[in-house]
Amino acid sequence: MRIVSLLPSATEIVCALGLEDQLVGVTHECDFPPSVRRLPKVTRTLIPVDASSAAIDALVRERLETEKALYTLDMPVLESLEPDLLITQALCDVCAVAEAEVQAAACSLPCQPRVLNLEPMTLEQVFECIAQVGAATGCADRAVDVIGKLRARVERVTLRMTATEERPRVVVLEWLDPLFTCGHWTPELVRLAGGAEVIATEGQRSRTMSLDELLAAASDVLVIACCGFDVGRTMQELPAFMALPGVAAIPAVRSGRVHVIDGNAYLSRPGPRLVDSLEILSEFFAPSHPHALTA
Predict the structure, then answer these.
(1) SS3 282
(2) Which residues contact residue 188 at a Cβ distance below 8 angstroms, ignoring those fewer than 6 apart?
């Protein structure tokens, strides 16, 4: 089978299932495992690499209002790869090529590939997506094994966290300018890791929030996981956030429990590494690790 992945998370799922040798094309953002970087890129983005958070947000909002894509397919490359299977999503038009464009592209290709759409909102649905990819690629049994190992890791974390007497009040920020709550699976991961996300709701989309709302939450732990940013890129944005009025008085900031996580690698990607994300969060919330960490 010749597989083209239009999602970094789908690329990770395909590789976790041991199918990297069948992966013939990926997106410009696919970077894990590192070996996939050598594969042909079938997408490109209109977002400037050096744009600020505010500029990126403005561009995203403009494109969504006008229904213009932020990402687009490189059709000549895609056609040359002759895929049997395209893996895409309809969860977020900000994060990937729009589903309508993918469907239109599939219909126009001589090879007429199957399109598999993944749309998880929770950790359980991510596991279901792994099973879907397994079924579509003829390795359902292997998917069962992969999911079983991931569930065992989740259970180890949750069993350890049940012994924790108090759950810290947690806020996870998905963007800093403007401020965005976390969403989808992240509040669930916070709960499983032993914390209580006090603003965002499990299974709901992320949203903009006011500074007053953040301050009123009075979080014990603040996790900053900017969508699509690694730690280094997020740290460039951090001084301006920390200088906002009232931020220094947040309990998490006063106690030094502000954690920066690689949002691009972990919380933003609904694939196998969400379990890594859970394990990282559990370290942040553990009473024996009270000081700031990055991951």
Answers:
(1) helix
(2) 122, 123, 202, 203
Cα radius of gyration rounded to whole Å, the chain: 19
> Hey, which residues does 85 pair with through a beta bridge?
3, 114
Tens of pLDDT along the chain (295 residues) come to 999 999 999 999 999 999 999 999 999 999 999 999 999 999 987 776 777 888 888 877 776 676 566 778 899 999 999 999 999 876 655 556 666 777 777 878 888 899 999 999 999 999 999 999 999 999 999 999 999 999 999 999 998 877 666 789 999 999 999 999 999 999 999 999 999 999 999 989 999 999 999 999 999 999 999 998 999 999 999 999 999 999 999 999 999 999 999 999 999 999 999 999 999 999 999 866 555 556 6
| Domains along the sequence of the chain with CATH | 3-119 (3.40.50.1980), 164-285 (3.40.50.1980)
Tell me the pTM.
0.90
